[in-house]
Write a structure and sequence with these properties.
The protein is an alpha/beta fold and 871 residues long. Helix 1 crosses helix 10, helix 11 packs across helix 23 and helix 24 runs parallel beside helix 25. The chain starts with a helix and ends in an 11-residue tail after the last helix. 32% of the residues are buried. The C terminus is likely disordered.
């Protein structure tokens, strides 16, 4: 007999006996007891539900008594005082109490007055049914109400309602009774829902005709009926009778079966006990299994553990014999060999990937540091308005490129689920403007309109990860522009109507591009996927943008959907949640400066989104916008009141003669400030209009709120920047050693420190830095990391060792590295660096760090003699 057959035969017999004992014991010893307890609990819940209806009826009785035993009501029955009606029996008062109607009966039980919260509809119908079916003149019920009052349930059509009637007496409950006051309050679905939440039960009223026949029959013989709906829910029924004692409805009570589940848990625990007992009875089988299986399996396990811990010895499992375990040991050896080979390949690939990402980060960030740094320095020089706009555009483009580089470097972390999201304050409008304006360059080069709109009620001062949001928008917009040959690409942002969270936003991006076939809509978010091979050849791209976007959106707890029609365009719908800054309430609540209030501007736009943006921006700045439909409309308004208009914002279009329009408007109103809005590829038109004096300035589309505000305040240029403060007379210049192998980056740092009170010397690698530092200590070092000869890590460690050897105080060392990973910062600090700045480095950030560290060091050191190097 084989090993498998012997084990199955012995173990099967034991466990069959255990299962049979478990079933019989659990049913007899446990489940019946718990079922009885559950039944008692269910009856109490039904009584609680019935009592809750009785309590509601008692509340109505109290309200009815308060009104019936009141001098004003007593007097009303004598003279029908209108003031009583107007002040007390208003529909609003009845609705607040929840009444469907109030009926006044005279002393003979006839209708004296009635009021419903709605003169028509369900309330009036219920009063009619009440008078017809219950409150008929000279009826026994009317006599009971006039004598001592009646409370109970009434069935009015399909509606069950509470009814309370009391004789009308004075406030001291003195008579004689001048009639009776009856109130009816419907037992609505809202009331049932409220009672359900109050009792933590599921309540429902069933008319008798809708009550199951077997339940209705059983309720005729007993006060309640119970049914097991499922293992989790039990349903109970109780009969509700009206004030005549007739069956009115069945009260259905749904309740959890906690007691039943407790019984099941107890049965399972008892079953575990039986299993443990069964193990003792199966010792013979265990001994057999131990001899044939367990000891040999343990041997294999010990050998595998030694191989896993890489202990000295053989790297294969040895198990003699010709049965299944011996065959398994040979299969394990083959698997171990395959695993070792796979691990070596994976480690090599991982090492290569890490080295490639680190190298790519350094090689790209190093020139980016010089590019963005020089752009920042260029912004500080005297530039024309047009030059400022160009510098802003390529600076924004550089930062967007840098963000993409960061995301590429994080791609492996996204795939591994290790990427961390920031939660920092940011301005939504600034992120959207920056992304759209950078992308507008590519769109305008193709003649495609690029526009965006943020709804006025959308919050813009948010808390979240602006870098990830910018990358998501960048990927979606660039993808839309790539596949759109003509027409428009529009981004719209609004508060998500489907979510109640104040920071929930809905982003919609639509284009008029080539569209996506329906069968590809689910695949476009896969990595390296495009619609077809011709798309890749025609438009380029690796198909990673949407895959990264989908991953980031999911990571941020959002959702992205796509709708498309071939030849007509595509709509991406994106939902994201952010925190809202406490001082921020709504999206576009920029306060209008007093100097701008009272202005009036004409707007002539050919694109609806652009026109909407212009109007909203002008309104937020306190400028009254006047939208014109055509140039003739503009000229007509200028001719009617030329001095009433201060500005004209006119949108350029390829089919529109902007020069002629500007000349005609200037002739009509010479003092008019004309601000053309032009595409980035048609900026020469704006420059030409400026040169001819036809325009004070021009703006590039899509419109920036800040730039428009600046042009309204200062039409002809930007404000001059104040020079840096001079160094304090008689003080020593702090010495700085710049360690950097890139000529461009050394030049950039010198530009950054130009005019600052520092003595800067250079070293091209770590070895030169160590030699210079050994001759004289410096107040601060700027240390690049990736350098030839001796890198920044080794140089920092050597400098720290030299300081300890010479007894010098530690000089602050700022690491300037192109490494973007968190582990790069940890390595820099571990090597001995004081601070870490990732390239590209901003001028203000660098100057602030230098000033803070040098100032802190000088406060810790005693004053020294002044040297020759003074500032």
């Amino acid at each position: 007999m084989s090993l498998r057959k012997a084990m199955i035969i012995h173990l099967a017999g034991v466990f069959i006996l255990l299962i049979a004992a478990l079933y019989a014991a659990s049913q007899v010893m446990i489940m019946d007891s718990f079922k009885s307890l559950e039944h008692q609990s269910a009856v109490r819940n039904i009584q609680r539900a019935a009592n809750s209806l009785h309590n509601e009826l008692g509340t109505l009785r109290i309200v009815n008594s308060d009104w019936a035993w009141w001098d004003d009501t007593y007097n009303f029955m004598a003279d029908k005082n209108k003031a009583y009606l107007e002040s007390n029996l208003t529909p609003e008062t009845l609705r607040q109490i929840g009444l469907s109607g109030v009926i006044y009966l005279d002393a003979r039980g006839r209708l004296y007055w009635s009021v419903a919260p709605q003169p028509q509809g369900n309330s009036l119908d219920m009063l009619s049914l009440l008078l017809r079916d219950y409150l008929q003149p000279d009826s026994e019920l009317n006599r009971q109400i006039l004598k001592k009052g009646v409370n109970g349930l009434v069935l009015l059509g399909d509606t069950l309602a509470f009814f309370a009637g009391q004789p009308i007496l004075t406030s001291e409950q003195a008579g004689p009774a001048r009639g009776a006051l009856a109130m009816v309050k419907p037992l609505t679905e809202q009331e049932i829902k409220r009672l359900s939440e109050q009792l933590s039960l599921q309540l429902e009223l069933l008319p008798m005709e809708k009550t199951p026949a077997d339940i209705a029959e059983e309720l005729g013989n007993r006060p309640w009926v119970l049914r097991e709906s499922s293992d989790a829910v039990m349903v109970g029924y109780a009969l509700l009778s009206d004030i005549h004692g007739w069956p009115a409805a069945a009260l259905k009570v749904g309740m959890g079966r906690g007691m039943h589940q407790a019984g099941v848990a107890a049965r399972n625990r008892f079953a575990l006990f039986l299993v443990a007992a069964g193990v003792l009875t199966a010792l013979v089988t265990a001994l057999f299994v131990d001899q044939r299986i367990v000891s040999r399996v343990k041997s294999v396990s010990r050998q595998l553990a030694g191989i896993r811990r890489e202990e000295p010895g053989p790297e294969e499992v040895s198990l003699p014999g010709d049965d299944e375990l011996a065959t398994l040991s040979r299969d394990i050896n083959d698997t171990l060999k395959d695993l070792r080979n796979a691990r070596e390949r994976a480690e090599a690939a991982s090492q290569a990937k890490s080295e490639f990402l680190a190298k790519m980060s350094h090689e790209i960030r190093t020139p980016m540091n010089a590019i963005l740094g020089m752009a920042e320095m260029l912004e500080e020089t005297d530039l024309s308005l047009e030059q400022h706009q160009y510098v802003n555009l390529f600076t924004s483009a550089g930062h967007s490129l840098l963000a993409i580089i960061n995301d590429i470097l994080d791609l492996s972390k996204v795939e591994a689920g290790r990427i961390m999201l920031e939660r920092i304050p940011f301005n939504l409008r600034e992120e959207v403007e920056r992304t759209c304006r950078v992308q507008a360059i590519n769109a305008h080069a193709k003649g495609v309109e690029m526009a965006f709109h943020i709804a006025p009620d959308a919050p813009v001062r948010l808390i979240g990860d602006p870098t990830r949001l910018a990358q998501i928008l960048y990927n979606l917009i660039s993808n839309a522009i790539k596949f759109t040959e003509r027409g428009e690409v529009v981004l719209h942002v609004e508060t998500d109507p489907g979510l109640q969270s104040p920071g929930a936003l809905l982003f919609m991006l639509w284009d008029t591009g080539i569209g996506i076939p329906q069968h590809m809509l689910e695949k476009i978010f896969d990595s390296f996927t495009q619609v077809d091979s011709s798309t890749t050849r025609r438009f380029g791209g690796a198909g990673l943008g949407l895959a990264i976007t989908k991953s980031l959106v999911t990571l941020m707890g959002g959702d992205i959907q796509v709708q498309s029609e071939v030849g007509k365009g595509t709509i991406f719908t994106l939902t994201l949640r952010f925190g809202v800054q406490e001082e921020a309430s709504s999206g576009q609540s920029d306060a209008a400066p007093d100097r701008e209030k009272g202005r009036r501007a004409l707007v002539l736009a050919n694109h609806s989104t652009c026109e909407l943006n212009i109007v909203e921006v002008l309104q937020s700045l306190g400028v009254e916008p006047v939208v014109c439909n055509s140039l003739a409309d503009v000229l007509e308004k200028l001719a009617a009141a030329p001095s009433a208009v201060s500005h004209l914002l006119i949108e350029d279009a390829p089919e529109f003669d902007l020069r002629d329009a500007a000349e005609r408007c200037k002739e009509a109103a010479p003092e008019l400030q004309i601000i053309p809005l032009v595409m980035s590829g048609r900026h020469k038109i704006g420059k030409e209009l400026q040169a001819k004096g036809l325009a004070a300035s021009f703006l590039l589309k899509p419109l920036s709120r800040r730039e428009l505000r600046d042009r309204l305040d200062n039409p002809h240029g930007a404000e001059e920047k104040a020079p840096p403060p001079p160094c304090a007379p008689g003080s020593k210049k702090p010495s700085i050693l710049l360690v950097e192998d890139s000529v461009n980056n050394r030049m950039l740092i010198h530009f950054y420190l130009k005019g600052a009170p520092y003595d800067v010397q250079e070293a091209q690698n770590g070895q030169e830095a160590l030699a210079l530092y050994g001759k004289r200590p410096y107040d601060l070092l700027l240390m690049d990391i990736e350098m030839p000869v001796l890198d920044g890590y080794a140089a920092t460690r050597a400098i720290r060792a030299l300081e300890r050897e010479q007894g010098w105080p530690e000089a602050p060392i700022i690491a300037l590295t192109a490494g973007a990973f968190a582990e790069n910062k940890a390595q820099c600090l571990e090597a001995g660096c004081t601070e870490y700045l990732s390239k590209p480095v901003k001028k203000k950030m660098l100057l602030d760090a230098i000033a803070r560290l040098i100032d802190g060091r000088r406060r810790r050191e005693p004053p020294a003699q002044l040297e020759e190097n003074q500032c």
